[in-house]
Write a structure and sequence with these properties.
This protein has 14 helices and 34 strands. By secondary structure, the chain is α+β, with helices and mostly antiparallel strands. Strand 1 and strand 2 form a beta hairpin. Helices cover about 25% and strands about 35% of the residues. The radius of gyration is 56 Å and the shape is elongated. The two termini are about 110 Å apart.
Length: about 725
């Protein structure tokens, strides 16, 4: 099968055409020739594959037509990129043009060569008569190259990380050359514009410090417009520290500092060796032999000439953060020096300090300082002051003592920093990370403490710049050791954190109590409902009790009287219920009563009230009944429903019911109504049972007579 990967292989500078069997191969520098040869090969291959691919049907024909179209383009002329022959033209290509991989062929001298700055690439700058350019060369391709050698460079243009470079280079050594003896003199502002990127330039400044690694050195060069680092390969036998405080001129390649978005954020210099460093004004051979200056005279108008070079001061050590800071005090005042030296000193020792005077926040400081012990002495006593007095700036760099209360910690710094409130001022007490922080756990919030340390005042730059007078903004106290924080009084247990814990526990308990109250109220409500239901409903049948019936009957009578409507009452009594109990047992009697209640409820209206009066006697309240005939229809349904035998344990128990009916209209007494319906019930039983009887006024007298008749001995105790 045809495989496109055998023909084209993407390379950094373009495309590489090859065929492993035919041995066809073209270098990236001849990309146009590669492309044309590849197309001609495609045309030949297309015609050879035509019979095979067309046999695959429509898909094969489509593939053949595509290959034929590509091969036909081989007949058209292809533009060949011109070869760039000067460093200036190659370096000044626009980024998009540089990405097209223009062939480059230049000859020049190596002005910087460093194989230690980057593990993957060699730092290589080549300079010709037009300018300089960076050559992106892999570390394994070093060869015998060195600074000052004349080389022939072939490659392609690349966009680089900031500016165009020579990519995929082939560097050939021609012979010995010479570094350019002169270079344009530029300042830091010009370097920061990026216009001198990669170019051979000359700068002037005073060396403030030297940083040494195994293979490289970096000079901190203070120029008229600011500070820049000059980097070079470390040479054996050279004492670079002698350059400190010397005024020098350096010829070097300007190199940018850039971020990941190809944006320039700074600049540094790469000088080949000490041959391009010219000392125009040497520093003192022994800086500790300089005249000792009183600390109170540092940075005053009469001493401005000393600001360009190092000064020498002597005093008693009041603080040392090894490798960070050293503070001393003489008879006039105190001063702190920034230093990378870590030689240990004790508080109270006499020290000579040499460094460059610079403006601090509210007092002068020494930068890039070195020191040595000049004697021993006693530690100085701290000056007790208030935080308001310290904030005025008169005691800056002095050893002071302030009482206050710990209110928190600052997490913004790697150093241990506690926030202390004293009077109306809140300040930070800072302990360097070089010290053991275990004792800092005792500095709890709320503790009353006594702070000993070096006063450091920060200015309000914006307000100070308006009037020309330093206006303090905040206060820091630099601690010499953890012992500089003396806990005068431990905090009360009732701290904000503990208060939050107690509050959380109280809230949790309160919520628990509230939840229990809700559950308890629910249970009480359920119990009340249960007891209310038990009080208002019969336990056996679930029907309303006699009391509920009386309440609803009175309400119905009042409503009937108000709206001139009628109502009726049915009284039911099971026939021969005693015989059921005696014959089948009380269990059968109870089951008969439950089924009777269900049957009555099923045939009456939803608005009707069915109640059990006791024993086998039931009452049905029928509200909104206009006449006795309507009540009789309901009574007939009840009689019919209850005449169906009850099936109990496979046996049919015959049952029947007698019903009394009493209809009322207007104002009627409830008790009288119940007496009347009871009379009608008795008449139904006397009439043969399993029927209903409606009350009539003349029944009352007849009932009384019948009652008297039944009281005759031997006839009393009717069978219900």
């Amino acid at each position: 099968m045809f495989c496109c990967s055998r023909i084209w292989a993407r390379q950094r500078g373009g495309y590489r055409f090859s065929h492993p069997k035919r041995g066809i191969k073209f270098s990236p520098g001849h990309r146009a020739a590669s492309y044309a040869a590849a197309l001609r090969y495609l045309r030949t291959l297309t015609f050879r594959l035509c019979p095979k691919v067309c046999g695959l049907g429509g898909l094969g024909c489509a593939l053949w037509l595509t290959l034929a179209a590509v091969a036909a383009s081989a007949e058209q002329p292809i533009a060949v990129l011109r070869t760039i022959t000067t460093a200036y033209e190659a370096h000044n290509l626009p980024t998009k043009e540089a990405a097209r991989a223009f062939p480059i062929h230049i000859q020049g001298v190596i002005t910087y060569f460093d194989q230690y700055l980057d593990k993957e690439h060699v730092a290589l700058f080549v300079h010709d008569a037009t300018g300089s350019i960076y050559v992106s060369m892999l570390a394994q391709s070093v060869g015998n190259m060195a600074v000052g050698k004349l080389v022939d460079v072939r490659g392609v243009s690349g966009p680089g990380d900031f500016a165009p470079v020579v990519a995929e280079p082939t560097v050939t050594l021609i012979g010995d050359g010479a570094l350019p003896p002169t270079a344009p003199f530029v300042g830091l502002r010009r370097l920061l514009t990026g216009l001198e990127d990669g170019q051979w330039v000359e700068v002037e400044g005073i060396v403030h410090s030297v940083f040494l690694t195994e293979h490289n050195i970096a000079l901190q060069l203070v120029m008229a417009e600011g500070t820049v680092n000059a980097v070079s390969v470390r040479e054996r036998g050279v004492d670079y520290t002698k350059l400190v405080d010397s005024k020098v001129r350096i010829r070097a390649n300007a190199a940018p500092l850039f971020n990941g978005r190809r944006q320039m954020v700074g600049v540094h210099l790469l000088f080949p060796n000490m041959s391009t460093v010219e000392v125009t004004e040497a520093g003192p051979p022994d800086p500790f032999q300089l005249r000792t200056l009183a600390i109170d005279d540092v940075s005053r108008f009469d001493q401005l000439a000393t600001l360009l070079h190092r000064i020498h001061i002597r005093g008693t050590v009041t603080l040392q953060w090894p490798g960070v800071s050293l503070c001393i005090r003489d008879a006039t005042h105190a001063l702190c020096a920034q230093t990378t030296q870590a030689t240990p000193l004790n508080v109270g020792d006499i020290a000579d300090v040499v460094g460059f005077a610079s403006a601090g926040d509210s007092a002068p400081v020494l930068t890039d300082a070195i020191y040595r012990k000049a004697g021993t002495g006693e530690p100085m006593a701290a000056l007790p002051v208030t935080a308001e007095q310290a904030l005025l700036g008169q005691h800056d760099s002095e050893l002071i003592q302030i009482d206050g209360q710990v209110i928190g910690r600052s997490l913004a710094s790697t150093d241990t920093s506690i926030m202390v409130s004293s009077g109306k001022v809140i300040f930070a007490a800072v302990l360097s990370q070089i010290f053991d922080r275990s004792q800092a756990d005792a500095w709890q919030n709320g503790s009353k403490v006594r702070i000993l340390g070096i006063c450091s005042v920060q200015l309000d730059v914006e307000r100070s710049s308006r009037g020309g007078v330093a206006i303090p903004r905040s206060l820091r106290v630099l601690l010499r050791s953890p012992e500089d924080v003396l806990v005068l009084q431990k905090p009360s247990w009732w701290t904000p954190s503990h208060a939050l814990v107690v509050l959380a526990v109280a809230l949790t308990g309160t919520l628990g109590v509230l939840c229990w109250v809700v559950v308890l109220r629910k249970r009480v409500r359920e119990s009340e409902e249960k007891f209310r239901h038990m009080a208002q409903h019969d336990a056996l049948t679930g029907l309303a009790t006699r009391r509920v019936l009386h309440d609803r009957l009175n309400v119905a009578l009042e409503r009937a009287a108000r709206y001139s409507t009628g109502l009726a009452v049915l009284m039911l009594d099971l026939d021969r219920f005693k015989a059921i109990n005696d014959t089948y047992g009380h269990h059968a009697g109870d089951e008969t009563l439950r089924l009777t209640a269900q049957r009555i409820t099923s045939v009456v209206r939803k608005s009707d009230t069915v109640a059990r009066m006791g024993g086998d006697e039931f009452v049905v309240l029928l509200p909104d009944v206009e006449n006795a005939e309507e009540a009789e229809k309901i009574a007939a349904k009840v009689v019919a429903a209850l005449s169906v035998p009850v099936l109990l344990e496979g046996r049919e128990i015959p049952v029947s019911v007698s019903v009394g009916i009493c209809a009322a209209a207007g104002a009627v007494d409830a008790d009288a109504l119940l007496r009347n319906v009871d009379t009608a019930l008795y008449r139904a039983k006397a009439g043969g049972r399993n029927c209903f009887e409606t009350f009539r006024p003349d029944m009352d007298l007849a009932q009384t007579i019948a009652g008297s008749f039944l009281m005759v001995p031997g006839l009393a105790g009717r069978t219900m």
